[in-house]
């Protein structure tokens, strides 16, 4: 559970994620994605669904999402890539948008686009079990199960790996047939669980 | 607010927990691994199905469960593997010339220095020898000493003690109320008429719940939705 | 201390002659000693009136009586277990969240509508909690289940707490509850998520909130 103290400022949160509050709060419905009308249009096209509310006031808000773990990410100008479903709330000052992610998205059944969060402030990610943060360097690329991927920051190239190696891992009904390989310099957030992936088998 | 701990290929723990739900194995050689239980890895690691020929000798020495062969692979190479299972609690256990029997769905990985055998009790596997294995449980494992009677579903496994017996609550089935219940269904059952009974010296491992930790079908990980 | 948390999802309790326990059926994980488990037709309440009260209230969560001499371990569905100790005050909790409780506690059923009027009725429907809630009163402990961890929020005069009815677990103390619709909150209703309504708790006491909007 995440407690957010507000002193007149505001926070953007996933719709329905607030479980309790004390003090005076007002709530405003917003459509996620970029700002304003253009953002909305982008949303329509990309199919990334994220209903957002803006909470403003004085007091304490408590956020939670299906008993998931909550991970705080501090951004200092860099860009965070996250599946919309894993984004719980952000400082209102952070910009949210969408980005093309290509294959990985399609394999996850989450559409070809992923949510980006940019600016300076804090974002809260939810994961099934506390996420672990793994650093990728040019010398140490990282392989991740698509179902366990939550988010990443930094300058990373990602591509699918379905190498001979993984053949052995494929049971009769698939499973880990594909892995995402991250190369470059950055951080990857991985949850200790594999969410349902629609196109996992391809 | 402190940032989260950032791990890399070098700072990931060596054969230890990353957090309560994730375990990092330093691989330099071979480990047996249940399919779908690895969420990420660094390094040069190959994965071989069991019964694919090349590993026949290893399998002959360490894997004696044809029933579960399709669910396991051998990870081979050098690197770090992060193991996890549906955000259940994960722990490692060291056996020193010992034996431990565990619910087959709870076992994630083990070193080839251990031998895996099918237990007499259906749904359980026995590990024998010296080495390390990694297992999941719904909530942290609680260790108990016999004598104790355990709901079969809450049982994770047992070490050193004799194989459990079935225990039935006969008192419950007899008597006036028992008769009424049997004939009318009135009152229902308490759901606690049958337990596994452990006696003797040893350790019994319990988890918090009766369900949720069910075995998943062969090869189909939680990751395949359809 | 009749209940001890072994883990966040598992509690242990002692029974002895003169001290019985009630628990949800099937919630026993293990036990030591000579312990009997009997389904409790009256749902833990004594007498015919209690039984009728149950039927009408439709809060008939199957309970069992636990007697004897020994130690019993409880857990259910992987849910978190919160132990709440009562020292003469009253706990309001939905029956299906009760994992186990002391036999010494007086059990009752309360019609929430009597507190919140028409809105109370709406509340029951919205949260799916039924119009009746179980009350436990006296000296003793109760083990309550929640989806995800539980936080305790103090309720003080002039500082009411608003809770998503789905995340509400239990409350205690001298507390009035009413269903309110916050300004703008109604706009947030997605697909009837139920968050259009919030439970407003005011007075003096404590409310227990789970880290999830999912019912058990």
UniProtKB/TrEMBL annotation, chain C:
InterPro entries: AIM24 (IPR002838), AIM24_sf (IPR036983), Trp_RNA-bd_attenuator-like_dom (IPR016031). Pfam families: AIM24. Signal peptide: none annotated. Transmembrane segments: none annotated. Gene3D superfamilies: Mitochondrial biogenesis AIM24. This is AIM24 family protein. It comes from Streptomyces himastatinicus ATCC 53653.
């Amino acid at each position: 559970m995440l407690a957010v103290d507000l002193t007149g400022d505001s926070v953007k949160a996933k719709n329905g994620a607030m479980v309790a509050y004390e003090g005076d709060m007002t709530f405003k419905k917003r459509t996620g994605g970029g700002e304003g009308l253009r953002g909305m249009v982008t949303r329509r096209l990309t199919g990334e669904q994220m209903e957002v509310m803006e909470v403003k006031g004085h007091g304490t808000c408590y956020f939670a999402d299906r008993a998931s773990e909550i991970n705080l990410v501090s951004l200092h100008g860099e860009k965070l890539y996250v599946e919309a479903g894993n984004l719980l709330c952000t400082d209102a000052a952070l910009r949210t948008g969408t980005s093309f992610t290509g294959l990985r998205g399609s394999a996850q059944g989450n559409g070809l686009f992923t949510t980006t969060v940019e600016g300076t402030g804090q974002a809260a990610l939810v994961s099934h079990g506390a996420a672990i943060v793994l650093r990728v360097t040019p010398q140490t690329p990282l392989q991740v199960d698509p179902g366990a991927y939550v988010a990443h920051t930094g300058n990373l190239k990602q591509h699918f790996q379905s190498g001979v190696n993984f053949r052995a891992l494929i049971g009769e009904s698939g499973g880990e047939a594909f892995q995402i390989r991250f190369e470059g310099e950055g951080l990857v957030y991985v949850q200790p669980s594999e969410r349902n992936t629609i196109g996992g088998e391809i | 607010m402190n940032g989260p701990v950032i791990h890399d290929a070098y700072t990931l723990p060596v054969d230890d927990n990353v957090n309560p739900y994730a375990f990092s194995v330093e691989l330099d050689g071979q480990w047996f691994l249940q399919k779908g239980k690895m969420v990420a890895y660094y390094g040069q690691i190959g994965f071989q199905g069991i019964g694919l020929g090349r590993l026949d000798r290893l399998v002959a020495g360490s894997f004696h469960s044809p029933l579960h062969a399709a669910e396991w692979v051998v990870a081979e190479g050098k690197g770090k593997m992060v193991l996890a299972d549906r955000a259940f609690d994960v722990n490692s256990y060291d056996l020193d010339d010992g034996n431990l029997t565990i619910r087959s769905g709870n076992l994630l990985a083990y070193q080839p220095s251990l031998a895996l055998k099918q237990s007499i009790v259906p749904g359980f596997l026995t590990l024998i020898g010296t080495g390390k294995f990694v297992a999941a449980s719904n909530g942290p494992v609680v260790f108990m000493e016999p004598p104790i009677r355990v709901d079969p579903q809450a049982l994770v496994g047992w070490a050193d003690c004799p194989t459990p017996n079935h225990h039935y609550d006969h008192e419950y089935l007899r008597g006036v109320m028992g008769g009424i219940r049997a004939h009318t269904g009135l009152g229902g059952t308490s759901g606690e008429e049958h337990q596994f009974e452990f006696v003797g010296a040893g350790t019994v491992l319990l988890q918090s719940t009766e369900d949720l930790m069910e075995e998943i079908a062969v090869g189909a990980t939680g990751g395949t939705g359809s | 201390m009749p209940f001890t948390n072994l883990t966040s999802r598992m509690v242990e309790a002692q029974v002895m002659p003169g001290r019985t326990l009630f628990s949800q059926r099937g919630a026993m994980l293990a036990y030591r000693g000579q312990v009997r488990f009997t389904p409790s037709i009256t749902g833990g309440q004594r007498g015919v009136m209690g039984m009728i009260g149950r039927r009408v209230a439709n809060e008939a969560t199957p309970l069992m009586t636990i007697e004897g001499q020994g130690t019993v371990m409880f857990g259910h569905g992987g849910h978190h277990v919160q132990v709440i100790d009562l020292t003469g005050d009253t706990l309001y909790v939905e029956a299906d969240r009760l994992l186990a409780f002391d036999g010494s506690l007086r059990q009752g059923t309360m019609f929430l509508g009597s507190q919140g009027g028409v809105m109370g009725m709406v509340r029951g429907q919205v949260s799916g909690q039924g119009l009746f809630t179980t009350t436990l009163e006296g000296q003793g402990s109760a083990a309550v289940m929640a989806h995800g961890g539980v936080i305790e929020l103090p309720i003080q005069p002039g500082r009411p707490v608003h809770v998503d009815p789905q995340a509400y677990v239990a409350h205690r103390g001298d507390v009035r509850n009413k269903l309110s619709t916050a300004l703008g909150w109604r706009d947030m209703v997605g697909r009837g998520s139920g968050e259009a309504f919030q439970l407003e708790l005011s007075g003096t006491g404590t409310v227990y909130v789970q880290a999830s909007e999912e019912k058990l």
